[in-house]
Amino acid sequence: MDDTTPDDRTADVPGGHRPAPRVLVRRTLPTEPAVRGSASLFMTEAGAQGVRPGRQMLHVGPEPAAGHIAEALRVEPGTEVLARRKLLLADDVPVRIATSFFRLDVFGGTPICAPGFVTPTLQAGIEALGHRFGHAEEYLVVRPATASETGTLRLDPGEWVVRIVRAAYGDDGTPVHVLETICAASRHIFPIAQVTGADEF
């Protein structure tokens, strides 16, 4: 964490409760391989920054692929894909919505479809199915938050988010894992660094 400052809206309210303070966390671009290979990218990142990380699984199941997800997975828009969506918190403040997408024709009926978090790690679960990392591409878009994102991240109306899509492919070129991370823009900074070393899904 670089800074923790009270939100402008943290004045006392009736009942003596105060809204959650704003936090500022780092999301390095591109992701450091050592961090990506850890048990949890966010838990490792946030813990190293001195904030208390938390995560909640929001959804595991099939859903239609939006256009940008379908393109990364090389399926037609609207095709049912597996989504694993979680909410990430820093000091109990929601900062990111992270959704992993998988092709059902590749991962359907596997442990990746099970509810809850994959143990020991999602990376290990993918590799246990015989996939080996080939390469990845990351895309970043800044836009206003949707109504759903505003509610889940507890944003003010009109706030913006940063959407990072990381598409990872196996060594045979198979689309293996697409990770879409919706970051509350006001609660993040994005260091840009030269990354060396092995990478992960």
From TrEMBL:
GO terms for biological process: negative regulation of DNA-templated transcription. It holds the Pfam family UTRA. Residues 1-11 have a biased composition (Basic and acidic residues). Residues 1-20 are annotated as: Disordered. It comes from the Bacteria. Residues 48-189 form the UbiC transcription regulator-associated domain. One of its GO terms (molecular function) is DNA binding. PANTHER family: GNTR-FAMILY TRANSCRIPTIONAL REGULATOR (PTHR44846:SF17), MANNOSYL-D-GLYCERATE TRANSPORT/METABOLISM SYSTEM REPRESSOR MNGR-RELATED (PTHR44846). This is GntR family transcriptional regulator. It comes from Streptosporangium sandarakinum. The lineage of its organism: Bacteria, Bacillati, Actinomycetota, Actinomycetes, Streptosporangiales.
